[in-house]
Fold these 3 entries.
Entry 1:
Amino acid sequence: MTDPQTCPADSEPSGYAAARLRLLHQGALTGPPRRAALARLTDQWLGALLGETRGVALVAVGGYGRGELSPRSDLDVLLLHDGAADISKIAAIADRVWYPVWDMGLALDHSVRTPAEARRTAAGDLKVHLGLLDARHLAGDEELTAALRTTAYADWRAQAPARLAELRELGEERTRHQGELRFLLEPDLKEARGGLRDATALRAVAASWLADAPRAGLERARTHLLDVRDALHLTTGRATDRLALQEQDQVAAALGLTDADRLLHGVYEAARTVSYAADVTWREVGRVLRARSARPRLRRILGGRGGRGGFVEVERLSLADGVVEQEGEAVLARTARPERDPVLALRAAAAAAQAGLPLSPHAVRRLAASAGPMPQPWPADAREQLVILLGAGPPTVPVWEALEAEGLVSRLLPEWEHVRCRPQRNAVHRWTVDRHLVETAVRAAALTRRVGRPDLLLVAALLHDIGKGLPGDHSVTGEALARDIARRIGFGPADTDVLATLVRHHLLLIDTATRRDLTDPATVRTVTDAVTDTATLELLHALTEADALATGPAAWSAWRASLVADLVRRAAAALAGGAEEGPRAPCPPDPEAHRLAREALRTGGPALTLEPRPEGTVPSDDGTVPSVGMELRIAVPDQPGVLPAAAGVLALHRLTVRAADLRAVDGALLLSWRVAAEYGAPPEAARLRNDLVRALDGSLDVPGRLAEREAAYSRRRRGVVHAPPSVTVAAAASHGATVLEVRAQDEPGLLHRIGRALEEAGVWVRSARVSTLGASAVDAFYVTAPDGAALTPRAASAVARATEEALGG
């Protein structure tokens, strides 16, 4: 018996048709071998139809040119002739080839051109030019085909800047109309973003020699999408690229998959790979084209070829310890050592997201290859960097996807594998489960000013659906997973309980508010039985809104928002009926605090100490060593301007304030700071003291110096928008002072600006509790009037408004 895979096709349609049917329905070949065999079979048939000719060539273009024929693919064929023969003769040759194809019922995309006509058509039609890049000789005059390919590639490279801009715009237009393949329940495998059309575009970019796509997994992803399309064609018997819901089970079965969810999961994985490769490639194209356009200007400015040796040093701006900005990307510093710094991946990601920059693919690959395992529980800095990353808003998404592309997210959070690329068969949901979780964190970042623990809100947003994809109620399963994750990343027992409660009950408010009578006391008890304190209720309210907003436009409306707010108000009132926890009493001053206060009063100037403060552990060659921050204590004779002066000096020395406490001790002001250097070694204590003396006597222009820093900071964070600051008066929080609570984005000089605003408002800061939770500052200032009395309600409101305006709120 003749093997159907090797059976030649004769020039008769019936012979080709029989061999084609045997190949597609009876043969053992699948995937790329079957597509290649179908292309070879078709080549033989069309070549026989053309016959012996002079000055004529039959050329396959597009997908057929690449030798990738799906069962119902169009045959993209060009009849190329040298123009020497009479036009009627060329028409007869074309009819001899085209009519048998039409008689077979096959889709044919055909054209008849001379090389010059093909070149002119390609110049005016990008799709034609792309097809010629895949031109492959079938039959006839091989020299004609070779000359055509040479010309097509030469023109493509010469016209690359304009043609690539047009190609990118075509891709963006397809995205606007077709959406992103990896989030669609009925995706178009070819036209949606991340589909086969984008994979082909990446080949064209590589052919321009301007940039090349990341190769890891890209060919495998493209092959998988082609395999799914083959199965779709054979299942439906139609030339369709849309994977409709009613056909997904059959397509899954044809591919040997258990169900439609597994099918979509694989499609989404492939689309994610193609989309990420496209993002990286187009960014590199932009960088190369910008560099080319800048060279003539550099030559004019520098005179000749450039700087020393003809090269211009690329500017590198520091973003964080071990992370710099270079040419519009966050990259690793030359001194970075990922193998010795397990927190570096999170620190790089957080710095990139906060700066609104993409994370360099090279940096991510290096981190994935070199970074050691994270200690468990995580050091405090790792947890803080995760919160900073989640709190960056929309820039979090591309940075997170860069980490996912190299497997770093699943390495840090193994539970992520359960939700990665998991479809949600619900018309309300816009995203896969994993993207929904990240989008919820993005939405939560805009709500961090409404809660006292923005770090818990952001982590709960990331984890609230982590139980999906596992047996049982995802809220119950997710609660257990959230507890494990919270303990592993270093949260204490109380915070772990709050996170578990938020995950377990993340649907409680929306379900209760929309399905129950809010005037019924039993309805309120449903909430207060599950959430037993107002701080957690505040977090759950914000998480509910973020979850709904990240789900889709149908999940949140003014009506739903008002119902949830009403329920929260009633539950908060019920919880407030019990005993309320008062402000936390500060620890009494220790002997070192008294000593510093006495020294400050004796000398009339600041006295300070700067000492290491362990914050956790990181691995080393000898086991583990402490992760060290610094504890700074400053005592100053009581006088106006101490807080803004001290905070300004710390900002000038690039010391990040993670926590602070201000109080009166023995007639002096004692400021206790927990700080960390942004990068490099911390300054010497003597330098800090000298600058503080100058700041207090006015010889150091702290505001001016910080304004210069702020201008550079703002340029570096172009396009990044954070939630506005919030300043509120905490009612009944203190008997002898007025408590102002400030919630704002942490940034260089923030505490200095708050202190100046309070000074200008004419109030005295008696004490303060400052904390930085990820990228959010949550600070409480105990202020009085100059006579030492608490502010009147009207005056307190005025000071709060003035402070908020000074912070840009």
Entry 2:
Amino acid sequence: MTNETTPAPNFIRNQVRDEIEGGQVTKIVTRFPPEPNGFLHIGHAKSICLNFGLAEQMGGECHLRFDDTNPAKEEQAYIDAIKEDVSWLGFHWAGPVRFASDYFDQLYAWAQHLIREDKAYVDDLSPDEIREYRGTLTAPGKPSPYRERSVEENLDLLERMRNGEFGEGEKVLRAKIDMASPNINLRDPILYRIRHASHHQTGDKWKIYPSYDFTHGQSDAIEGITHSICTLEFEDHRPLYEWFLNNLPVPSKPRQIEFARLNLDYTLTSKRKLKLLVDEQIVDGWDDPRMPTISGMRRRGYTPASIRKFCEMIGVTRADGGLVDIAMLTHAIRSDLEDNAPRAMCVLKPLKVVLTNVAEDYEEVYEVPGHPARDDMPMRKVPFGRELYIDQDDFMEDAPKKFFRLAPGKEVRLRNSYVIRCDEVLKDDAGEVVELRCSVDFDTLGKNPEGRKVKGVVHWVSAAHGVPMEVRLYDNLFMVEQPDRDKDVDFLEHLNTESLVICQAIGEPSLAGAAPEDRFQFERMGYFCADRHLSAPGKLVFNRTVGLKDSWAKIKQKG
């Protein structure tokens, strides 16, 4: 794990700083350019933090631009979710939200310019034929028989394509570059395809749509982007990016810089595979708390600060560093919530305890700090009476030596309260423990009992005052580090069947007023967040964000 006192590497930040100090760049302008065909995931968070963070740190600006060139896969819901995610992370884009479709008229004019310069042509080859003619990594391509059409014919065909005279797949517009280039991206790449699809921004105006490669660099140039920062899979596209800029009358020439993408273990970041999980109802939507989407992490209880901290911890390099340990992510949220989440007690698997030497109408209320190290958090009231609940896991009838919780004849301290002793165990007809009869040592509030040592402390909730709630225990969605590594095995075979366990729990009264997205440390259990969609007055649903380290679990594993 990266030492938090040592800044993580960020070669792009160092490079941009040198350019500004050297006078090559006066003001940095970056952009975050998502395709609105799905929700953003943790990999996008790295790109968001990099692009917006650079602009913040260097006194520049960052644009939010949707690369919306494929209307068949794009939805307004994705656009809305992406804007919300960026804002939630704490970033602000410069100017209005931009769309590549804002520039469709200009891109079309530039396509005509390339035709007039004899650098583009309309091709009638089918998609399969285009792939065949393109060649391979070891063999050059061969020119299309339509490559030498006249400028006039190409201009006429392009206009007719635009007007919807041809069916999808009948024709494409291609750049005329080099079919023998060792870089396949330069072998006459496609600029426009026919798509008879309504667009969420332009309606039915267009029957042809530009390719990503033709759109991206020119949109950067129109917006005055200085640094087009993208992941390493676009490195081989950079010569094409630069070819367009050098062969079109663009107003500026951005520079593309690539960095290594984020690969997180036990996680998928393929939009196609994430969409499959949603479509097959394996998860409950894009914001299911098991999903690596920003909205899913938010619903699970991650904070903007923790995600930004994680992205800073992993750094920015050109080298593919392999898998990032998911423990770095959980460390980032755990350290944030350790400092900022108020405490509360919640019993996930209630086991009733009756204190036999306490009167039925007895009640006292403890004033307990909201956070042990935060004087700015209000005190909370914890009522105590004859009947209460502890967690089933805090009792064992046949307890081993190192089990310092409750057992027959053994003592344990109730958190912030007295020491109790288990005197009797009641069971149902099936032999299951349903109730414990215990006695209280009233001389142990705030002090140790005379002449004996009590090591165990358990959390508890008053039966008369407890708040019923549903608690959802989330874990990794996959059981293996790289779910899609083996191409011969369906990644769905690696699903964790225990990734969601639902408990009908009881919490202390202070939790009754929890608002959606309120976060707490349930003492001894972990960090939890009130579900942003399902929680409401009178109905509380809490999602486990991350657990606490459990020494007993380690002992059992060694067992």
Entry 3:
Amino acid sequence: MITNTSLEYKGDLYPSKIVSYEHEGDSIFFNTDNKVILKVTILRDSLIRFRFTTKGYFSNDFSYAIDKTQLHGYNFLEVTEEETYYQIRTSKVKCKIQKADVRLSIYDLNDFLILEDELGFHWEESYEYGGNIVKMSKYSKDGECYYGLGDKATQMNLKGKRLENFATDQYAYQKDQDPLYKVVPFYIGLHNKQSYGIFFDNTFRTFFDFCQERRNVTSFWAEGGEMNYYFVYGPQMQDVVTTYTDLTGKPELPPLWVLGYHQCKWSYYPESKVKEITSKFRELQIPCDAIYLDIDYMEGFRCFTWNKNYFPDPKRMVAELAEDGFKTVVIIDPGIKIDKDYWVYKEALEKDYFCKRADGPYMKGKVWPGECNFPDYTNPVVREWWAGLFKELVADIGVKGVWNDMNEPAVMEVPNKTFPIDVRHIYDGNPCSHRKAHNIYGTQMARATYHGVKRFAYPKRPFVITRSAYSGAQRYTSSWTGDNVATWEHLWLANIQVQRMSISGMGFTGSDIGGFAEQPTGELYARWIQLGVFHPFCRTHSSGDHGNQEPWAFDEEVINITRKFVSLRYQLLPYLYTMFWQYIEEGIPMLKPLVYFDQDDTQTHYRNDEFIFGNQILVCPILEPNAVGRRMYIPRGEWYNYWTNELFIGGREIWVDTKFDEIPVFVKAGAIIPKYPVQQYVGELEFDELTLDVYFKNGKEQSAVYEDAQDGYDYKKGRYSFLSLRNIGKEKELIIQLHKEGKYITPYTKYKINLIGLPFKVSEIEIDNEKIEFDKVSFEKNNFLIIDKEFNELHIVGE
């Protein structure tokens, strides 16, 4: 019988008063008399880490999420002691830490309160598993909004929601169903025109409550581990997202073909069926760059094998597909079939690479091959072995990309759909149970896959896609939103999910166009294509159980709409490639919700549908059947209707008429949009002209075009071309200034400049201060001119 009441007490525990502090370099340690230590680390003037321990010392500091290649540094740091609090000041913010209870508050330098602890850090001892359940609560300001948290199937603004992070295989999930496949414990708060971010770097099952339980309190907690979070100050949302993306890392540039259109199904087999699909794309002139093989290409669903009845000579087939412009992408799952005659299983068994239960036996679970064991990807030795397995697929057979699925990890025929929590993991030298490793299992699989594909694809760039991910996975892989459903509601969800992933650091994301489960109507598929071509990752995928989902599975009208919009994506490839370059160089998300684009306009705070594609194209999908138009919000500024070139003044909601073969698309006034000719696949055509659509604006606007060899690593040696384009519009004059960086020589020699919205009739053209006759630049009907690309300044003068 326990008589000690302190042992019986299982409620919340709190830090007591601070008794001392030490300042060591970029860190300040605050010690309480009940052994709580708060370590505050200043990574940048606007990036502060708060790390708590309740045991008087810190465990090994290790994170899979943080990009260790990033260098941090601050400009100013001052620590002062006042009567009731300590103050830490940087050149951007002030942090006050109360002596009585370690509660903290953060202000800007004008003493505006950005974020304030309510109960602050507290914890509950976990007697069942050991360690702590760690908790944090903060006050929510009047009108405060919340965004981010990765792949959540709910409204853009998370105010009033409670959400859970535990990577879960959720087949045919519904609106507001949670948790899903990905874990991104990062959110953005916005109030009083000030943005900040919180990244709770804890891989245990975590929860976030955005004022659901109590209207004025937001909180987050985890079932184990440390209270370890990063505060990111804006004050603009752009600054928050960029800083967080720098912290957790960015991908390398993909080959340009990856940004084309992809076709997938569970499953295309045998070889004759694959060839039938690819041939139909070429016959119908619908551009496509990638064809996917799902689990049926394998021998009994054994990874790294081929079913020779379906694919008797995969190397020949992959080469023949490549000749027609198709890159082959294959699926690889984590479950390794228990089969003593299966070489991958035998290797892993001999080397002791599989995950084990607490009492010693290997973790066993059923997935597609039947009973399987599962590699421990948290072991660096296992990751190296796994990477080596891709030699035959990539180097010998010629596969161009690998798709990791079922890596939450998903297990069939068990109530919780995953590993038991007693499974043990190496965790890169920090041994732990599956409670801690579950949320990062998929990321570590994708990491090992990435290193294997990169090694054997060299000197070309790798392509990897994963279903499950934790913060930082974007360094290795792209992703998609999982097993969605062919419904209008899921079209609405796909739009929000990809926007949210973009501002949560994982920009290279898309959805299964048309829905994975069930069968779309032709109208729904067409509307989904019209949205999907404006997502960074663009792939049709379906379960195949409910019918066919190729563009020609519907009617002629849907075929034509698919061709029109996929062709538009291929025209916009230089624009999309530039978006990606800015994402990896500067951490700028490729898709921008309206609140990101203009947080000072409160009308943007609850918008779900509209988004900015890149920096200068506004897209609003049609999300319901039988629509002949829709109401949408045009953000502040001037915008041209892409289809009609009609100019609109923003900052208001308007009705936009649409046809079945259109959705509302607008271009920012002053933008210069680069376009390629339509190709059936990347690299099909050699062309001598880059089209620049120039939208007039009375004022100034900056645009950019990034290009390189479209694959390989020469761009890292300076062999790229980055054009800075400045558009200056006046009452009777248009000036285009061009500045080029980089050593790459683009293969085309001319620009075809489309002049859109000119308010005057052209009377004179000057190139680099030299007057040019109209016939020398093929100037026609006040519409476009063709000029040599080697110029610095173009003047177009009106009457």
